[in-house]
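### Sample
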Amino acid sequence: MAMRQALVALAGALRGATPSAPLAGGVRAFASQAPSVYDRIVQLTVVDGEGRRHVVRGLVGQNIVEVLEQHMDTLGEEAVCLSPEGRDIKEAHVKLPNELLGAYPAPAGDDAFFLNEIAVGTDGHSRLGSKLAMGFAHSKALYALTHLGVADELAAAPGGTLPAQQLAARLGVKADELRRLLRATAANGVFAGVSPGVFANNRGSSVLRRHHPTSLHSMVQVWGDESYWGHKQLAESLRPGSPHSFQLQTGGPGYFEWLSQPGNERRSRSFHNAMDYPWGRHANQSLCDVGGGVGGFLAPLLRAQPSMRGVLVDLPGVVADAEVQWRLRQPDLLRRATLAGADFCADPLPSADIYFLRYVLHDWGDPEARRILAAVRSAMGGGQAGGVAPKGLLLIQEAVLSDGPLSPLYAGLDLQMLSIAGDKERSRREWQQLLAAAGFGLRRVHRLRTLTSIIEAAAQA
């Protein structure tokens, strides 16, 4: 049976017996010191393929598996993973579509947030106002706190908590304004208010730390800065013949051209911050970074993998800038790197063991993307002369969307591409079709800790 995609959010193990006043939408929380039959309520919010919300409730003392089975058509078999006794919901360790981020038990301090999430979903005015029309304010608050490094400061504090006044003194910012930003993000489940004016990290904010294993520190800064800015003229960009929104903002340059301009070095570093693929498997091999800009990815890769060799391919003007920067910043790497100016849409590509396309193909529609892939296929030895290089490998770093309904997060990524580059993200099926049309077979998809994946493909005979 085809799996229906579902987004599952665990509302948490609620404590108490006495119902509070109803929240928006009639949802009630429970708050009491005395243990009772409600001591371990499990509540799930399930969003089905049509966007309808279903609330699944059950006592942990019950067989929760039976409760969930009643909703399995909506939920999907792989959405949650339960302990053998069916007494607790654990982090999912099964393969999930990208937008299914697993089912997690919520810390006690987060219960109110999850209940409000359920409530807001039943109240159209609240959802339209807080989640959509005013979403920009919450987004910019999150960006500001991430840019300041608040999550790292809280993690370093004794006990992991700090009053807003002390936190502001450490960061050199205004105390009351900082408190209000933290209060706003805590209302969205990021950071926890442990007492009035005192804050700590929670699961939502921990990933904002710079060195968290699944850090979103750089990604949030990209979204909250240039991506936010690039959406400002989205309505105007919909008119026939209009450039996309980002170009309307810049007055001409597209996103990647603008990113390489002087003054955008910090933004470029934030953008080029994913290195989760097991590059060590390619020791002693050469990698051609197609459309690699000034080498913001290739240089750190060669530094981390001293036996690899690299070829940087981009437009001649971009590569001329790259040559200047490499001579100034990493002249030692030039012994293992070739910088080649070329139009990869038209010119032959240099020979290499691996061809890497990072954030390139989502800038192009399918016809142009097929031409780029065909150029790579030809460079591997599979052009008119026939034959396939035995070690020829193609790696593509891009978002891989679900083939079914999308979560708001991945739908937002697709809108980013519509606004910034006038193009799109692709699903796994769309990637398979695109690769097959250019003579490649998709081998596997390597999930990264960011929102992107690395697609591994090989040339077909």
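Residues 366-382 form the longest helix (17 residues). This sample (Hydroxyneurosporene methyltransferase) is used throughout the tutorial notebook.
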